[in-house]
Write a structure and sequence with these properties.
The chain is an all-alpha fold. It has 19 helices and no strands.
Length: 397
């Protein structure tokens, strides 16, 4: 087996080797996809590798890298806020800016930096899995995630790899009861990727579960533990508003961040459902699928998300990790407008690959090989469908 080529004491080397292998595969798939790319808004036909990596939202991060954020929000003729930099958090472009002394231009610096953060994420993710699974299972959990459909995003100028790194850190510190370190990681995440509300809910759910269990005569729930969980939830909730508050203070408009985010939904019916809880899922289904079938698909998706937590391999991941996944699902149900980006947006639920790895390690070799091939095919499909641009394109990555 691949994970036996290096001794158990060198777990980090095994993880970095599989990361290097997975990124090499993605490079090949990017180049193959670029060969099918026609002229578009960002590049000419058949763009070079690094040119192809700098399309879609990478452009917005590059604008932040070059000139920061506007103090006045751009408005359409009807007064609606237009798409602008405030919808993108400053963590990733700020780190890139700090490295600009190297003289490496954004086109190369952003993918290199993202790839390095991806490696850091892979290392921390392994440690997260290793707290609940065997070494063998933890290795495969990381490996399978690194070849999952949207994994090529880890080497583009998006903030995903940096955000996943901090999410993995928060989870690791949480399960290790290193609460101050978890707060520090959350503070970094607050300015990297949205979603801290999911952590606030996860901490709250675990607090409630342990409180109810203690009242029913189960495991004790001491004052210190209860206080720490409450403080974690409070810190996560407060930090969740750090960037929206920053946007409000700089622009003088209290809804600057939310209005900027919603600008991307403006082309969809009902404004993408606005910021109304759950409604965007049904308006999206109406737009992309239509009628009763669309509503049925949404109900089935929600039911499937709930059913996941009754799978034994998911339960084996432990209370903290499953609480975060459940809270993140709830967060998406409340705030997200579903479209093709859902594949990328679901990446913070990477811990579910720990459940897949438990089953995967028991399958016959033929089934394991077939699974790896299927994931690579889905990755190629994601690049062709979501990353490759074909105007008018309604399938963003």
């Amino acid at each position: 087996m691949v994970d036996r080529l290096v001794s158990n004491s060198a777990w980090w080397l095994r993880v970095l080797l599989v990361y290097l292998t997975s990124r090499t595969i993605s490079v090949i798939l990017f180049i193959a996809t670029a060969a099918t790319q026609a002229d578009n808004y960002w590049t000419k036909a058949n763009p070079a590798y690094f040119d192809f990596l700098n399309i879609w939202d990478v452009e917005w991060y590059s604008k932040i890298f070059n000139h920061g954020y506007p103090t006045v929000l751009p408005l359409a003729a009807d007064g609606a806020v237009q798409q602008n930099e405030w919808a993108f958090l400053p963590g990733f472009p700020s780190v890139a800016k700090a490295l600009s002394f190297t003289g490496i231009e954004w086109k190369y610096l952003a993918p290199i930096l993202a790839t390095l953060f991806g490696a850091a994420f892979a290392l921390v993710a392994f440690r997260v899995f290793a707290t609940k699974l065997s070494d063998h299972q933890a290795f495969w959990a990381v490996s399978l995630f690194l070849i999952s459909p949207a994994s090529p995003i880890l080497q583009t100028g998006y903030a995903e790899s940096m955000g996943l790194f901090f999410i993995a850190l928060v989870l690791y510190f949480w399960v290790q009861d290193r609460y101050w370190a978890a707060v520090a990681a959350m503070a970094c995440l607050a300015f990297t990727r949205p979603g801290l509300a999911a952590f606030a809910l996860a901490f709250g759910l675990v607090w409630l579960y342990r409180f109810i269990r203690a009242r029913m005569g189960g495991r004790g729930f001491g004052f210190v533990e209860a206080t720490k969980l409450a403080l974690l939830a409070g810190a996560a909730l407060a930090l969740n508003f750090a960037w929206p508050l920053t946007a409000a203070l700089v622009t003088g408009r209290h809804d600057a961040y939310v209005a900027s985010e919603l600008a991307w939904r403006a082309s969809y019916p009902f404004g993408g459902g606005g910021l109304n809880p759950v409604l965007p899922w049904f308006s999206s289904a109406e737009y992309f699928i239509g009628g009763d079938l669309g509503r049925i698909v949404v109900v089935l998706a929600i039911a499937s998300a709930v059913a996941v937590f009754f799978v034994p391999e998911v339960k084996a991941l432990g209370l903290e990790l499953t609480a975060f996944v459940g809270a993140y699902f709830a967060y998406l149900l409340v705030f997200f407008f579903p479209q093709s980006s859902i594949v990328r947006i679901l990446m913070p639920t990477f811990v579910l690959f720990g459940a897949l790895a438990q089953a995967f390690s028991k399958w016959p070799k033929s089934a394991r090989v077939a699974t790896v091939i299927l994931l690579l095919i889905l990755q190629a499909g994601w690049l062709l469908t979501c990353w490759r641009y074909q105007a008018p394109d309604f399938s963003p990555p």
